[in-house]
Amino acid sequence: MKIVMLGAPGAGKGTQSKKISGHYKIPHISTGDIFRANIKSGTDLGIKAKEYIDKGLLVPDDLTIALILERLQHEDCSKGYVLDGYPRTIPQAESLDAALATKYEEIEVAINIDVPNDHIIKRMSGRRACLNCGATYHVVTIPPKIDGICDVCGSKLVLRDDDKPETVEKRLKVYAQQTEPLIEYYRQKGKLKTVDGTKGMDYIFKNIIELTMSLD
Ligand code: AP5
Predict the structure, then answer these.
(1) Pocket of ligand 1 contains residue 38 by CB under 6 Å
(2) Is the pLDDT of residue 42 over 80?
(3) Model pTM score
(4) Residue 216 C-alpha to ligand 1 middle, in angstroms?
(5) Could you confirm whether 171 is annotated as catalytic?
(6) Is 160 an active-site residue?
(7) Ligand 1 neighbourhood includes 85 CB (under 6 angstroms)
(8) Total domain count for the chain?
(9) Does 131 map to a domain?
(10) Could you tell me the CATH number of the domain that includes residue 37?
(11) Is pLDDT of 83 > 80?
């Protein structure tokens, strides 16, 4: 099954993508995680991406599209994938559809996690991320077992640079301008399913499985 996750920054795309990936046994591909791994290891891509990410801007399409289309060629994608944070612009969505069409394939469903902006701002200030393994926590709703330490790999947890309040506001503006139009893009293709992202994580996950199980 090929799934696209939509939703504002902090809507819970990463949280739900990990659960979906486990449930359907398909890879979770997060462009944000790929960029952060490249930033951490100091690659050329990471150096370029950091310039944009730290300002709350999208990484340009010419860097992002080639990266993801190459990743989708890997063997682990043969039975599908959950795309978290991709596409984020109409050109990204169109190029993805065009690449899939050459193999007579298509995205089966786009899941939009709907969360109002005031909820998002509260969530982001409490998020703590592990830059080593990609696990995420929240100081109130999902605290780690030991304060400031990742349960999975034992690394130190951090507040991401782009989760500072002024950058979150910029990311929300960029989302409204460049990414929100994808909701209409997938609606017109009859692929859009929307879930209420203000509910609890397990409730949202159950809802997503109900909406996707007939596609498996
Ligand atoms: P990326 O990492 O994808 O950031 P994002 O989309 O802004 O998403 P987030 O990771 O911030 O949030 P999320 O929706 O995954 O929420 P999460 O599950 O963590 O990208 C980072 C940057 O890279 C972008 O800004 C851009 O610059 C660049 N980039 C990436 N992809 C790109 C692309 N395709 N094109 C161009 N540039 C690109 O949850 C958030 C918090 O809330 C957590 O603490 C979590 O524990 C908590 N939480 C989750 N669900 C719930 C719930 N139901 N109730 C209470 N708390 C919850």
Answers:
(1) no
(2) yes
(3) 0.93
(4) 25
(5) yes
(6) yes
(7) yes
(8) 1
(9) no
(10) 3.40.50.300
(11) yes
Averaged pLDDT for residues 135-163? 93
Question: Does residue 138 lie within any of the structural domains?
Answer: no
pLDDT at 203: 97
Amino acid at the residue 15 = T
Mean pLDDT, the chain, as a whole number? 95
Q: What does 157-212 look like in DSSP terms, one character per residue? A: EE--GGGSHHHHHHHHHHIIIIITHHHHHHHHTT-EEEEETTS-HHHHHHHHHHHH
Ligand 1 contact via 31 beta carbon (within 6 Å): yes
Q: Which of 57, 54, 38 is nearest to 46 (CA)?
A: 38
Model confidence at 204, pLDDT cuts 50, 70, 90, reads: very high
Residue 86 phi, psi dihedral angles, 5° rounding: -145, 130
94-98 long-range Cβ contacts below 8 angstroms, 24+ apart? 95/61, 95/65, 95/69, 96/68, 96/69
Q: How far apart are CA 112 and CA 196, in angstroms?
A: 9
Domain that holds residue 91: 2-116+179-215
The active-site residue out of 2, 88, 123, 193 is 88
